[in-house]
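Hey, can you fold this one?
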Amino acid sequence: MTEERSTTDTGSEGDPASPGPTAIGDLLGSPQRQPDRQEKKRKKKKERRRHWPALLKRFPRLFRQPPEDEPWPDDRPLVPPESLTKYRTLEADISVWTTQLEPRFRKLDHRAQNLQNQFWRQRVILIAGGLLATSLATIQAALGGGNVYLAASQAVLTGLLAGLTVLIRSRRAQQGYLSARLRAEQIKSEFFLFLARAGNYAEGDPATRLEQEVDNIEAGGLP
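Sure. Predicted structure:
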């Protein structure tokens, strides 16, 4: 007779109360959500935009930027809310993210997206201005030259574009975007290390260490 093996070992994958080998991987995976109307609309819009030209596919917002401190409709949770009840052993660690780190991460994430949009908008303005200046020069050439109004308009537009180029370089939107994005991803990486008790979080007080690292990242330092 063959003996039946027990499947009730501590830490096994069948026990939802203890994090097994795949628990952290499942926790950090994409949240399982029921599709709603807004989600379906976003998917349809994204599918339509796949075939658009690159300039139109990511065309920037031209006016109002959404505030950094408020939730955005397309924000996706890094840690699914149901993880608080699904993984009881990790509940305290998960709550560190949801109560302390996620607002700080979102602020940097939103700042990065706003600066990225600002950089794209600046480039669109330069492209449109260059196209308009070229069109004026083409019309002037087609008319045989000598049109004072076209020449003056082209000169003014060219001067404005030159000044705008200098202003754009001084504002350094791309560098600001890269900095904010890097710091947001660093916060996320530190939380993953904290969750796995790896690296500097293997001993001592992991929560205090995490708080110190996040403060350092927000101040512009490296973890």
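Residues 99-223 form one domain. Let me know if you want another pass with a different chain boundary.
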